[in-house]
Specification:
It is a single chain. The protein is an alpha/beta fold. The protein has ten helices and 15 strands. The protein has helices at 8-22, 27-34, 38-50, 75-78, 83-94, 109-112, 131-137, 162-169, 194-206, 244-253, and strands at 24-26, 54-57, 60-63, 102-105, 124-128, 143-147, 151-153, 158-160, 173-179, 183-184, 188-191, 207-213, 225-228, 235-238, 256-259. Strands 6-5-4-9-12-14-15 form a seven-stranded parallel beta sheet, with helices on both faces. Strand 10 and strand 11 (188-191) form a beta hairpin. The chain starts with 7 loop residues before the first helix and ends with a strand.
Length: 260
């Protein structure tokens, strides 16, 4: 039995879902995946472009930058989102940590979720720019906690900027866990804040190994400032919502991908 055709709103949502997985798609690819005509795809793209959600490119379409599908930046709002994904990613990330390491935890609820999984480790030094993570680390007797200091961002409960980056530069970090609210294949890891870019890049310079912790709902979102291309990362820890074809394309760039 053939599948009933999708109404325009359903096609729009499916088109956005496909773009979040792939970043950019051609008109031909969309006609095949949506099983509609070129004219229908172009009308759908025009509607989504008018609402600011996509941008037409030569022969295809990509997600628009700075659109409403990005997660909220306020800590209280983000803390309740995608909890099972965050927990799974955090547990897998903690598996990369060995006794005696110096570890960096970036600001964010996903990196904070790593803290309880470090309880069994010994002789750890954990550096963070996240105030919530620093408080949680105080409850682990086998961990020496270091906060970077820096300019305080009240909405995210963290600090960043030149002072924080300078503190990072004084450390030898074994593994740095970076958070990301936006990432894709074409643009890599991006951020809305130059101060956050500065800190993340300082971690990449100071760390022997860098792992990105990012759930699949952040894939395909692009912010204005670039942190790094994916090929400069050693590991990406993501949940199993990331499509296999995306994992394969990321692996071609160089980093290993752990699907939690």
């Amino acid at each position: 039995m053939s599948r009933a055709p999708l109404i325009p709103e359903q096609r729009h949502q499916e088109l956005l879902r496909l773009l979040r997985s792939s970043g950019v798609l051609s008109i031909h690819e969309l006609t095949d995946r949506l099983n509609v005509s070129h004219m229908t795809v172009r009308r759908d793209i025009a509607a989504l472009e008018k609402s600011g959600q996509v941008v037409s490119v030569q022969g295809g379409v990509r997600l628009a930058e700075w659109v409403g599908n990005a997660p909220p930046r306020e800590r209280a709002s983000r803390a309740v989102l995608e909890l099972p994904r965050k927990q799974a990613i955090a547990e897998a990330a903690a598996g990369l940590v060995e006794d005696g390491m110096v570890v960096f935890l970036d600001a964010g609820t996903t990196c904070q979720s790593v803290v309880p999984f470090l309880a069994a480790r010994t002789d750890l030094t954990v550096v963070t720019n996240d105030f919530h993570a620093a408080l949680a680390l105080c409850g682990l007797p086998n961990v020496q906690a270091i906060h970077t200091g820096g300019e305080v961002d009240v909405s995210s409960g963290s600090s960043s900027g030149p002072l924080a980056a300078k503190a990072i530069g004084a450390l030898n970090i074994d593994i740095g866990f970076l958070s990301a609210g936006s990432w894709d294949l074409a643009h890599g890891v991006t951020s809305h804040s130059t101060d956050k870019v500065l800190l993340k890049q300082a971690v990449m310079e100071a760390a022997s190994s860098v792992a990105l912790l990012a759930d699949s709902t952040k894939w395909g979102i692009v912010e204005r400032f670039k942190v790094t291309s994916l090929d400069r990362l050693d590991t990406i820890v993501a949940d199993d919502g990331l499509p296999p074809e995306v994992v394969a394309r990321i692996a071609e760039e160089g980093p290993s991908v752990l699907r939690a």
